[in-house]
């Protein structure tokens, strides 16, 4: 039985990531810290190395914050030189976080030195609704 579970753990993500190098690269993209501030708001810090501001899109709806990002590879051949080794990843990336009670009209985001900072203010009390229990 133990052999079964060891094999299962070893091969579970095999279909998701073609090789270990790619899995390692993807794990470094969009590493996230979410802080709960004293006023009840949230600040989200997301590692976005190599991404340009214009290639990042944010969406908040139904209590879910979603980050879409795209990074493209440089030309394979420049100045008559060929790529010998290539470890930097490219492609489209998406990550979602369930964070409720946020005022979408007051969300602010900035990108500085590869770190995306998102301020998520809480809804004011007047926007909440009392729910009657039947």
From TrEMBL:
Family annotation (Pfam families): HSP20
Chain intervals for the UniProt region annotation (Disordered): 74-95
Transferase listed as a keyword: no
SHSP domain residues: 20-134
SUPFAM superfamilies on file: HSP20-like chaperones
InterPro entries, per database record: A-crystallin/Hsp20_dom (IPR002068), HSP20-like_chaperone (IPR008978), Small_HSP (IPR031107)
Matches recorded under Gene3D superfamilies: 2.60.40.790
Keyword annotations: Stress response
PROSITE patterns per record: SHSP (PS01031)
Record family assignment: Belongs to the small heat shock protein (HSP20) family.
PANTHER family membership: HEAT-SHOCK PROTEIN 20 FAMILY MEMBER
Protein name, per record: Small heat shock protein
Organism of origin: Listeria floridensis FSL S10-1187
């Amino acid at each position: 039985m133990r052999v079964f579970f060891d094999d299962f753990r070893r091969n579970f993500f095999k279909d998701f990531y073609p090789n270990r190098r790619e899995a390692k690269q993807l794990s470094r993209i969009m590493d996230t810290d979410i802080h709960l501030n004293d006023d009840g708001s949230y600040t989200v810090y997301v590692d976005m190395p190599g991404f340009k501001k214009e290639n990042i899109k944010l969406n908040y709806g139904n209590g879910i914050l979603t980050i879409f990002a795209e990074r493209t590879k440089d030309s394979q051949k420049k100045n008559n030189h060929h790529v010998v080794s290539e470890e930097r990843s490219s492609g489209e990336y998406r990550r979602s976080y369930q964070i409720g009670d946020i005022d979408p009209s007051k969300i602010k985001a900035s990108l500085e030195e590869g770190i995306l900072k998102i301020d998520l203010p809480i809804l004011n009390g007047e926007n909440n609704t009392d729910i009657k229990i039947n």
